[in-house]
Amino acid sequence: MKTLIKNGYLITMEEESVQKDGYVIIEDETILATGSGVPPADEYDKVIDADEAIILPGFINTHTHVGMGLFRGYADDLPLMEWLETKIFPMEDQLNDEYLYHGAMLDILEMIQSGTTCFLSMYMFNNGAAKAILESGIRAVLGRGTSGIGPDEKHRQVFDEIRDLYRRCHGADNDRLRIWIGPHACYVCPPDYLKKVAALAEELHTGVTIHIAETQSEVDGCLKNYGLRPLPYIEQSGIFDHPTVAAHCVWMNEEELAILKKYQVGVAYNPESNMKLGSGVAPIGKMLQMGIHVGLGTDGSSSNNDLNMIGEMRSAAFLQKVANLDPLALSAWDVLRMATVEGAKILHWEDAIGQLKPGYQADLILIRTKCPHMRPLHDVVSNLVYSADKSDVETVMVKGRILMENRRMTGLHETEIIAQAERTFREMYKKLQQSQKKEDEKVDI
Ligand SMILES: [Zn+2]
């Protein structure tokens, strides 16, 4: 199957340039050629006229919790720990693989429709998530969320579950899905437990994703409990000897930035979640100056409240500009790099995705420019980051397979997925109320 996409503004992310009259030639899963001008004459099975749309690598969301879309709007305007402990954790206790599958389908539908072709998720019930990923056609890294609280027996079971998931799903569909480990954060992971996570990463030769220094209270708690700030605390476990994506990294001092650099820990910057939860502003400028790799993430859709990487790019730049009182603090080009090629780097997938070049996977998107908010088109990258809307994403391709064409989903049934997600939340909420009623009755006795 040979496909030609032509007549677009091509951004390959190989270098800082936009090619007018750009084209991409795809054979099966991979990119055969890119260029500008008249495409080579050949027999193509499919020709897509981009009609001056921007052609670029699909967005890579480097931090989310796939399935949390079920809890969108359920509890807002609360501090992080109160939000987790009083609202989110009790609802999560009702989750199972089937519910998670429906939540993941809702999130994946939203991601595809807003141009994301790959994501890194940290969450539970990964059998449900893996099923949704493999059915939908999107690419992903699933970091099984874990916590070191509770009995050793429970941890052994979770580790066995990760081994089993890894054995069955790592590299599935010709390397469209990878399995990592996702210890939640230092406040639920004692030192011995983190060492066991590092040993499991060693055993499976896989990566780890973890929240680090999201809030000031996380840093205070780590200092109080272990006498160390979160980053040096986690460094001791040996986790950073393995590919690691650290989400947030808001509260970082110079010594900690040097640790990120030393181990080449990738950072997932989540500006909208950090703003919504009042967590703070990550020192992204310093990180980039030091050569630390930074990707972009939305976080879960109950702390954002969407999975829209175009909106996230705009927020990423604006937040840095206002926090540093400097309009040059983060440029449109640097943000676009975070959302594509740098995202691929921190997932250790930079040899196959994040750029459009021969031999790479055909994970790409088309974003229309023939609409008032995208014209005039003096600077394509500037308009893409500062003016585009998620609904401007017209066509999405992963591994050469078209998942959405001219805003029509090719495989997923949008209305069914939305209805099923709503049914699922209602069912979970009912179960939660029943279990709380039982607890109240116990107290009365
Ligand atoms: Zn998170």
How would you describe this structure in keywords?
four-stranded parallel sheet, 2 domains, globular, 41% helix, 445 residues, alpha/beta, binds zinc ion, nine-stranded mixed sheet, Urease, subunit C, domain 1, TIM Barrel, 16 helices
Summarize the structure.
The chain has 445 residues and is α/β, with parallel strands linked by helices. The chain has two domains: 2-57 and 356-409, Urease, subunit C, domain 1, CATH 2.30.40; 59-346, Metal-dependent hydrolases (TIM Barrel, Alpha-Beta Barrel). The chain is 41% helix and 22% strand.
The main sheet comes to: 9 strands, mixed
CATH topology of the largest domain: TIM Barrel
Termini separation (Å)?
A: 69 Å
Structural class: alpha/beta
CATH superfamily of the largest domain: Metal-dependent hydrolases
Provide the CATH top-level class of the largest domain. Alpha Beta
In the CATH hierarchy, what is the architecture of the largest domain at level 2?
Alpha-Beta Barrel
Mean pLDDT: 96
Number of helices: 16
